[in-house]
From TrEMBL:
Keyword set includes ATP-binding: yes
Enzyme class: ligase
Taxonomic lineage: Bacteria, Pseudomonadati, Campylobacterota, Epsilonproteobacteria, Campylobacterales
Domain of life where this protein originates: Bacteria
Keyword Oxidoreductase: no
Keyword line: ATP-binding, Ligase, Magnesium, Metal-binding, Nucleotide-binding
InterPro entries with a match to the protein in the record: FTHF_cligase (IPR002698), FTHF_cligase-like_sf (IPR024185), NagB/RpiA_transferase-like (IPR037171)
Protein name in UniProt: 5-formyltetrahydrofolate cyclo-ligase
Enzyme Commission numbers on file: 6.3.3.2
Length: 210
C-alpha cells in the first residue's frame, strides 16, 4: 500500500535524511553537483547569479565563487523582515540573529538576475519546493516581478512523486542532486536548446510541472 505524505510529514523525513547524508558524504561526491551547476551557468550564459550561503545540510556553492565570478556577478540573499533582498557576495560572513551565516548588509540589487540557485529540503511532482517552512523564498520570488531560471539543489535526492506543496510554493526548472537530476519538460527556448547539445539532458528525469 502506498504511503501518503503531507508536506509537514515529508519535510521532517527529508530533514533527517539530509542530516545523515551531510555526515557521510565525501567532498568528491558532492562535487558532482557542482560540476552540473557550472555547466548550467555556462549554458545559459548567466551574467547575474543568485546563490546562497550554505548550512551544514546544503551544497557549498561558495567554493565555486572564483570560477563563477570570472564571467558573472554573484549575489546572495539577505534576510529583511519576512522576505529577502539580494546583496553582492562578499567575505567574510557573519552570523545573523537567525543563527545563519550571511554576507554583510549592503544596498539591495535592483536589476534582473538571470538564474537563481535555491537550496531545498525536498521537491514534489510539480517541481515545487519544500523548504524550512518560513516562506522567505516564496515571498521573495512573488515580489520579484519577473522569473529567472530557477535551479533547486540538494545533497540528497529527496524528490517525491506526489503533489504535497501549496500553490504559493516556488517551482523549479531544474533540480540537481549528486545522484539524480530533474528537468521541467519545457524549460528553455530554441536558442538554449541549440547550445545544449553538449549537455546530455537525456540522462535527466523529465517532470511535467503542471
Amino acid at each position: 500500500m502506498m504511503i501518503k505524505f503531507d508536506k509537514e510529514k515529508y519535510r521532517k523525513i527529508a530533514k533527517t535524511a539530509l542530516k545523515k547524508e551531510s555526515k557521510r558524504l565525501a567532498s568528491c561526491y558532492k562535487n558532482r553537483l557542482n560540476f552540473d551547476i557550472l555547466k548550467l551557468i555556462k549554458l545559459y550564459k548567466v551574467k547575474n547569479l543568485l546563490i546562497f550561503i550554505p548550512m551544514a545540510t546544503e551544497p557549498n556553492l561558495i567554493k565555486l565563487r572564483r570560477k563563477i565570478s570570472k564571467n558573472c556577478t554573484i549575489f546572495v540573499p539577505f534576510m529583511v523582515d519576512k522576505s529577502l533582498k539580494m546583496v553582492k557576495l562578499r567575505l567574510p560572513f557573519f552570523v545573523s540573529k537567525f543563527g545563519i551565516r550571511e554576507a554583510m548588509d549592503s544596498n539591495a540589487y535592483k536589476k534582473d538576475i538571470d538564474m537563481a540557485i535555491v537550496p531545498v529540503i525536498a521537491m514534489d511532482t510539480k517541481m515545487a519546493r519544500v523548504g524550512h517552512g518560513a516562506g522567505f523564498y516564496d515571498r521573495f520570488f512573488a515580489n520579484l516581478g519577473y522569473r529567472p531560471v530557477v535551479v533547486f539543489v540538494s545533497i540528497k535526492d529527496m524528490y517525491i512523486d506526489d503533489k504535497i506543496c501549496d500553490k504559493h510554493d516556488i517551482c523549479a526548472d531544474f533540480y540537481i542532486t549528486p545522484t539524480k537530476k530533474y528537468i521541467k519538460k519545457v524549460c528553455y527556448d530554441r536558442d538554449v536548446v541549440n547550445r545544449a547539445r553538449r549537455f546530455d539532458f537525456r540522462s535527466w528525469r523529465r517532470v511535467a510541472n503542471i
